[in-house]
Amino acid sequence: MHEEPEVLPLINDMLAQWQASWEDLSDKEVKGRIRYTDILVHLFGKQPVNITAKEADKLMKTVDAMPKSNINPYSKWTQTQRIDAALDGSIPKEDRVTSSKHALKVYQGFYKWLKREHIIDESPFNQMRYENKQGGKRGAFNIAQVQRILDFSVKCEDPAKKWVPLLMAYSGMRNGEIQRLTKSDVRCCQVTKVWYIRITDSKTIASSREVPIAQALLDLGFLSFINTLDEGRIFTVSDKWLTRYYSGVLKRVCDLPSVALRGGALSVYSFRHTVTSLIRSAGANIAMTSAIMGHSTEGGIQAHYTHTELFSLQELKDIVDAIPYRPKVSDNLQEVGS
């Protein structure tokens, strides 16, 4: 007697549950998501969530064929009329949307949520990529730009507004990694007596690592801040908080351009490019850079035989402490850690 295959929930039903979790989104963000989930519902709403890669490809081709909704006559059409026109290929190329970037991000976000909720094992959108207006290239902040961010952040009373940019500037941690940090992830090595942050539950094996806490952060009182917290997450902010905070506050207040001097879009991710460049300049080789940043080492023999966990935390801290910028504060705060 064979077992019946598991019947997964329908896309319509799971989209309704996902939408109920959007409480931290702005009205504009909600409308943007609905615009793209309407297309998913139109095509596959009554199907189980495990659509095939071929069906996902059909969905993205439909998005690419959609008309711009802000020009006539399409601005007067319903979304259903626009989708039907995209499906029959009747929209002239010059009237079609210029990018499917945001749609893909919405679909990837939905299927990432389904995976996190243990509804599916794999996403049909995993291998899909988009290129941004800068051709996919990210830029790095220069030292003066980071200095402005640090000088502003160190004066903020809100813990997230203060410590998140400071941590990123001295560690290059990813946004998601900082969000998942808990009080128990801040530790002291019993051998070297170096304070470090344990990063786990990251996107690859290489991403799991132990990052020394820069002396500049210790001098600012980072451990004292940690000691005031209850167990659990250090920063209770939403997934989109840092992106919105950067574009809505930091970029304006710190007078940051949209594009780096030598090209590449500037964003919160630019901290990773800056830190990587600076620690390499301070003498970190590829393997040491991987140990700090969570990058995979290069392929071949080096990747097979290099074990980044064998580097001394003190050795890595010396590299991190060589990062040249320092927040300007009126008082020289001293750490009272435990």
TrEMBL record:
<dbReference type="InterPro" id="IPR013762">
    <property type="entry name" value="Integrase-like_cat_sf"/>
</dbReference>
<dbReference type="GO" id="GO:0006310">
    <property type="term" value="P:DNA recombination"/>
</dbReference>
<dbReference type="InterPro" id="IPR050090">
    <property type="entry name" value="Tyrosine_recombinase_XerCD"/>
</dbReference>
<feature type="domain" description="Tyr recombinase">
    <location>
        <begin position="136"/>
        <end position="321"/>
    </location>
</feature>
<keyword id="KW-0233">DNA recombination</keyword>
<dbReference type="Pfam" id="PF00589">
    <property type="entry name" value="Phage_integrase"/>
</dbReference>
<dbReference type="InterPro" id="IPR002104">
    <property type="entry name" value="Integrase_catalytic"/>
</dbReference>
<protein>
    <recommendedName>
        <fullName>Tyr recombinase domain-containing protein</fullName>
    </recommendedName>
</protein>
<dbReference type="InterPro" id="IPR011010">
    <property type="entry name" value="DNA_brk_join_enz"/>
</dbReference>
<keyword id="KW-0229">DNA integration</keyword>
<dbReference type="GO" id="GO:0003677">
    <property type="term" value="F:DNA binding"/>
</dbReference>
<dbReference type="GO" id="GO:0015074">
    <property type="term" value="P:DNA integration"/>
</dbReference>
